[in-house]
Amino acid sequence: MLLKRIIPCLDVRDGRVVKGVSFEGLRNVGDPAELASRYDADGADEIVVLDVSATVEGRETMIETIRSVREVVAVPLVAGGGVRTVEDAARLLESGADKVSVNSAAVRRPELIGELSKRFGRQCVVVAIDAMNRGSEDWEVMVDAGGTPTGLDVVDWSREAVRLGAGEILLTSRDRDGTGIGYDLSMVGLVSEAVAVPVIASGGARTAADLESAFEAGATGALLAGVLHDRITSLRELRLELAAIGRELRPC
After folding, report:
1. Which of 26, 53, 187, 230 is most exposed, with minimal Cβ within 10 Å?
2. Which helix (H) or strand (E) holds 179?
3. Is 33 a domain residue?
4. At 167, which CATH number?
5. Which residue is catalytic, options 45, 51, 130, 177?
6. Cα 191 → chain centroid
7. Looking at 43-86, which runs of residues are DSSP E strands?
8. Would residue 175 show up in a list of annotated catalytic residues for this protein?
9. For the chain, what is the domain count?
10. pTM tops 0.85, yes or no
């Protein structure tokens, strides 16, 4: 059985880490390399770096940011934002990323997932899904940094993404992002049941109990951002609390 992962996320805009609530009201919270170095030292299992405005602004991927983060961390690094082609992904991998994340471009051109998987291997391809709740156990895929509805069902799109070659799903609740009220466990559970690849829960975490709930729902990874950036808690504290309730994690 795969050990569960605790994964800090760095949402980057114009070379700075930002954080908001429900993808809005973004504020500057620090330098990507400085935060990544702190999280690596504190016991991160992996670090995700996403350029949150590249797709909306039509910019290319953040090569220099990835290089600077790679220089200071030893853990696996996932990079995404503005990845539209195999060449975009190749530049990120050459700059130090271990995996690439695709979101809006994959929805608009699903064959991109297969192209990436064929070129780099399924294990390198993370399909990020931003979801908005439409009612009881009904979630819609959103693109363009969560600003554009697609009409796609999240569970159906998760299945299709894996069929096309995704090796992992990064599942973010737009409704819960930055709220600290916990992950959308119903959505995490349904997607985890629907696919045979790792699922990372994202959006709403604040406590070790939130992480454990996501793991119990089927997630293999739990992503955090604002609670770490604002020092509400730390990776060391979370790991200790999870160990105290018997959750086995990767040794630091």
Report:
1. 230
2. none
3. yes
4. 3.20.20.70
5. 130
6. 15
7. 47-51, 77-80
8. no
9. 1
10. yes
